[in-house]
Write a structure and sequence with these properties.
By secondary structure, the protein is an all-alpha fold. It folds into 2 domains: 1-51, Arc Repressor Mutant, subunit A; 53-193, Tetracycline Repressor, domain 2, CATH 1.10.357. The chain is 82% helix and 0% strand. The chain has 8 helices and no strands. The longest helix is centred in the middle third of the chain and has 38 residues, at 105-142.
């Protein structure tokens, strides 16, 4: 039983890895289940045995890519021993948007993600990995006088602004420049939320 589970997990990983490369280089629309099967070295029926559709494969790919970027961001946050400030939050967002704008990642995260999965599902995946760092950052800059409700509302508003920045970055011919512009505006917004010292 354990060997069968290991083989199944290895097959799923092979499908997801093959699909990830194809989605990153060609985009979702240009990739077929046949392409994924060939790249994974299995029969088309083997793909359908583990996944119901190309979209379900894409969702796993996007989730894994976001998990990897979140791990990088969390390492960055852990290494920052100083205070959380509007500058550090905006810088962390800029680093995320720059990473997400790399060729391939941009295609999966910023271009195909919201279209293929719909903005609500795309945002749910994003929230799973990035909402808590946003919330904890706002809690730090808003200070102890801010209520839990105030922090939650501000976090949702900022998360919405971050989604807009991501969409604009993904749609741009110069994503890094657009990311810098949005992050500068976000920094100004965050200064407005910062507790007075």
């Amino acid at each position: 039983m354990a060997r069968q589970a290991e083989r199944s997990a290895a097959t799923i990983d092979g499908i997801v890895s093959a699909a990830r490369k194809l989605f990153m280089t060609r985009g979702f629309e240009a990739v077929s289940i046949d392409d994924i099967a060939v790249a994974a070295g299995i029969a088309k029926g083997g793909v359908y045995h583990h996944f119901s559709s190309k979209q379900s494969i894409f969702e796993v790919v996007l989730d894994r890519v976001q998990a990897e970027l979140a791990s990088q961001l969390n390492s960055r946050l852990a290494a920052n021993t100083g205070k959380r400030t509007p500058e550090t939050i905006a810088t962390n967002l800029l680093e995320y948007l720059k990473a997400a704008s790399e060729p391939g990642l941009r295609q999966v995260i910023l271009i195909d993600g919201p279209v293929v999965l719909g903005q609500q599902r795309w945002r749910e995946i994003d929230d799973r990995y990035f909402f808590e760092p946003t919330r904890s950052g706002l809690e730090a800059i808003m200070g102890p006088k801010a209520s839990r409700k105030q922090v939650e509302v501000a976090s949702r508003l900022v998360a919405g602004a971050i989604v807009e920045a991501a969409l604009a970055t993904g749609a741009s011919d110069n994503p890094v420049a657009v990311a810098r512009t949005y992050c500068a505006a976000l920094k100004s917004m965050l200064h407005g939320l910062q507790a007075e010292s």
